[in-house]
Amino acid sequence: MFFRQFVKHPGMIGSIIPSSSTLVDSMLSGVDWQRTRLFVEYGPGVGTFTRTILERMHPDATLIAIDLNLDFVAWLEARIADPRLRVVHGSAADVRRFIAEAGHRQADYILSGIPFSTLPDGVGDAICAETQAALRPGGEFLVYQYSAYVRQLLSAQFDEVAEQVEWRNIPPCRTFRARKTERLAQAA
Ligand SMILES: C[S@@+](CC[C@H](N)C(=O)[O-])C[C@H]1O[C@@H](n2cnc3c(N)ncnc32)[C@H](O)[C@@H]1O
């Protein structure tokens, strides 16, 4: 399913295979699950992160998974039955509308698997700006990418960006953790 979608939409999918469980663990290891009530995932694909997020998430929390590809949305809806999950067909650029429609105000964490370097011009900037606005003060934007391109988009919106390389993923993958500091929230 994942490979078929890559062949149909290479720029939108950005990778031939889903992420490894090592990458999933390393991306989610710093999440404060006790405090999280709204988690948003961009580009869930076949649910590689989605299932683990649901396993770790608080019973009262909500996960909004947003994907531009209708086939992935239908796949997830047919395979994961969890009342805490809301699968949305659309663009991450509309995250604030989807959060409001789910009855929430701001997200604690937003995780992204979107291939920023192959998006049409301006879309990556818009997604990062909307994400910053959609996070609560102290909230974090967690991003995994095979290219360093997203670094400049994150630095334009967030004043704290930490970067690492997950060497155990095949191929090795860059991970970014961008925090919405109290200072940034007050400046808005
Ligand atoms: C590399 S795949 C990641 C799949 C999965 N999360 C994983 O780690 O294996 C990228 C995903 O981003 C989705 N995508 C691309 N552009 C998007 C956008 N603007 N908004 C939401 N999803 C998008 C694609 O449809 C695809 O599901």
Automatic annotation (TrEMBL):
Gene3D superfamilies: Vaccinia Virus protein VP39. InterPro entries: Methyltransf_25, SAM-dependent_MTases_sf. Pfam families: Methyltransf_25. CDD domains: AdoMet_MTases. Residues 40-139 form the Methyltransferase domain. This is Methyltransferase domain-containing protein.
